[in-house]
NAD dependent epimerase/dehydratase family protein
Amino acid sequence: MSMYELTLAAYESSTIKLEDLPPIRAVALSSGLSADLLVENPPTLFLQVDPLKWAKHKNVKQAWGKLRDKYQLDQHAWEKATWDFSVMTIGRDWSCVGSMSKARKLGWTEYADTGDELEDTFREVFSPAEWLRRDF
């Protein structure tokens, strides 16, 4: 089974209505957003492929087992994977602005260009991806 077929076989979408109102609500009135529907309604997550469901599929677990055994991977990593975090991260349709202020206060002084880092990461990932294609 190819990686593409493996993904399609485990394709299950999800729409998750969150219970809590969005954090922007705390400053909505002072920002002129108080009547905005995005502020008044709880957010909804939209996932074309739900990682929680995907990880439970028999064929996905079998593929993981094959990779784990061949490359001496740590089973603990799979068992402790943060699927909930990935659901929240890839399922949201709103922006998330991060700040480095706290890290700077704690002594982090490094800088990395996001585009350069993505390119480097993809270069590192694509070679192993070729190995995976051979395995499936």
User: Anything to note?
Assistant: Residues 66 and 72 are 10 Å apart (CA to CA). The longest helix spans residues 114-135.
